[in-house]
Amino acid sequence: GAQMWLDALATAARLPSLDASNVDWSSPGSGDNTTATLMGGLTAGLPGAVAASVQHLRASEIATTWSTPLLTGGGAAVLAPLLPFPVRHTPDLVLHGIRSFMNDMIN
């Protein structure tokens, strides 16, 4: 998610450590200082990376049938409206998986 993106930049590139909860998702673009530029790159880059990944999967042989992508995690609700295609926000996706696994084990 967004915080992992910012933490990776702070660690790998020795850039300032920033808090993703301060991101203004409504205004992607560049800035006039390091913090604004990092935030602008995040607001354009994260939705772009997710969109590119989904488009790659749709074009591959992996996705022979395709349904609506699922988003989960802390930033999913914020990310969903920034994507160029519909998604389904499923905050409890892991719990659905555990339930499915347990049902398979019982039956």
Q: In what range is the share of β-strand residues?
A: under 5%
Q: Helicity level, as a percent range?
A: 40-55%
Shape: elongated
- Please state the oligomeric state of the protein chains shown: single chain
Mean pLDDT: 88
Strand pairing plus helix content: what structural class? Answer: mainly alpha
In short:
This protein has helices spanning 2-12, 34-59, 76-79, 93-106, and strands at residues 70-71, 88-89. With 107 residues, the chain is mainly alpha-helical. The chain has a two-stranded parallel ribbon.
Give an account of the 3D structure.
The chain is mostly helical. 51% of the residues lie in helices and 4% in strands. The protein has helices at 2-12, 34-59, 76-79, 93-106, and strands at residues 70-71, 88-89. The chain has a two-stranded parallel sheet with strand order 1-2. Strand 1, helix 3 (76-79) and strand 2 (88-89) form a beta-alpha-beta unit. It is elongated, with a radius of gyration of 17 Å. The relative contact order is 0.13. The mean pLDDT is 88.
List the helices and strands and how they pair.
Elements: H1 2-12, H2 34-59, E1 70-71, H3 76-79, E2 88-89, H4 93-106
Parallel strand pairs: 1-2
Key phrases:
107 residues; mainly alpha; 4 helices
